[in-house]
Design brief:
Low-confidence stretches: 1-31, 318-358
Shape: globular
Radius of gyration: 20 Å
Number of domains: 1
Strand content: 15-25%
CATH class: Alpha Beta
Order of helices and strands: HEEEHHEHEHEHHEHEEEEEHEHHH
Number of strands: 13
CATH architecture: 3-Layer(aba) Sandwich
Number of helices: 12
Strand order of the largest sheet: 1-2-4-3-5-6-7-10-9-8-13
Distance between the termini: 37 Å
């Protein structure tokens, strides 16, 4: 079974080059090397690496970074440029590393019930790391953020669901929604296609993970349309999950083209970027931050920078987004829905509700002429 998991975590495709970006790249200082740091308790048997900029100001933000399968903290941080950005913007990076003893392919165990419950396993270890960093460096507990790629993206969703009160925001890159799987078999299956659930069912999984009643963290979601490792409908499911928690009308998204990517956004609470020609990996623009590598894909758009801007850690570029007339097809009139759904079987009712909520990304891509209309 682990061999199959390794196979599904293989790297897929490279993204295209992008158009020039007015945000100029700054080389990473030599001091942006992650430091192995002790902490406790550690029930999940993970390692903690940190980057703390020199002359750090009290009350600085904290960004937690989770790598993908087969990666290390150092490689993922160098590829995505998070410490490089921290040196510029004055925040602290906490990079969590999995051990091969826990998972043969160094994946975070986002599908293992013992590691994804509040107070247990890997989730509890990551929470302990955050507490250690806030205490030791006098960081602002109201400005803690978390992001991750692939298995790290799925584990990011776990942390946002099980410890939502800790985080002001999160970013799921090529990952899966919380509750997508509870064992390896389901993980493999749901990487190919997300489970079919209504937005309410996705939201209920998060509500049941802790006693938190809100407010919920702001969420940024990133996915390649050509991702054959983690199907893009997992991004759609994540949108449904967090949109429902925030009480958003999913069809009321603002649509725009940003550096060749489709961005749907709901105020400053939820956004999703879809990169049409991207496979499985974190999209970067190496002219701004990061270096291409397996799973770190040159795409002409810097997910690292855009995520930091969405969280309020960086100033937004003066003119970057180019609005396009992308129209998301609305669902039927609400008054007609009860009559329509009353005639459906329970399975058909779930399918219809899920389709209305989760097809926003594909509709936007087709409307922009980036996918064929069938």
């Amino acid at each position: 079974m682990w061999r199959k998991l390794v196979a599904y975590m293989r790297f897929n495709g490279l993204g295209p080059g992008g158009k020039p970006n007015p945000l100029k790249r700054r080389d990473a200082p030599a001091s942006t090397i992650l430091v192995d740091t002790a902490f406790s308790p550690n029930p999940g048997n993970l390692r903690m690496f940190t980057y703390v900029p020199s002359a750090l100001k009290a009350g600085a933000p904290l960004v937690v970074v989770l790598h993908g399968c087969g990666q290390t903290t150092g490689g993922y941080d160098f590829g995505t440029g998070w410490s490089q950005l921290a040196a510029r913007a004055g925040f602290v990076v906490l990079a969590v590393e999995q051990k091969a003893l826990n998972n043969p392919n160094s994946c975070f165990n986002w599908f293992n019930p013992e590691d994804i419950r509040r107070g247990e396993g890997e989730a509890a270890s990551i929470a302990a790391m955050i507490g250690t960093m806030i205490e030791h460096h006098a960081l602002d507990p109201s400005r803690v953020f978390i992001t991750g790629l692939s298995a790290g993206g799925a584990m990011t969703a776990v942390m946002l669901a099980t410890y939502p009160e800790i985080f002001a925001g999160g970013a799921i890159v090529a990952g899966l929604p919380f509750g997508a799987a509870l064992n390896v078999r389901d993980a493999l299956e749901n990487m190919r296609s997300a489970p079919l659930k209504t937005p309410g069912e996705w939201g209920d999984l998060v509500r049941a993970a802790s006693e938190h009643k809100g407010p919920w963290p702001k969420i940024s979601i990133w996915h390649g349309a050509l991702d054959t490792t983690v199907n893009i409908n997992n991004a759609q499911a994540s949108v449904a999950q967090w949109g429902e928690l925030h009480g958003l009308k999913l069809t009321a998204a603002k649509q725009e083209m940003v550096d060749g990517a489709i961005r749907l956004s709901w105020d400053d609470r939820l956004e999703v970027y879809t990169i049409p020609a991207l496979g499985h990996g974190a999209p970067i623009d190496s002219r701004i931050a990061g270096t291409p590598a397996p799973f770190i894909l040159e795409a002409g758009i810097s997910s690292t920078t855009r995520i930091a801007q969405f969280w309020g850690l960086l100033d937004k570029p003066a003119v970057r987004a180019r609005p396009t007339p992308i129209r998301v097809v609305p669902p039927p009139e609400q008054s007609a829905l009860p009559q329509i759904e009353a005639a459906l079987t329970p399975a058909e009712r779930i399918s219809a509700s899920g389709a209305r909520a989760e097809n926003l990304i594909l509709r936007a891509l087709k409307a922009a002429g980036l996918l064929p209309k069938r």
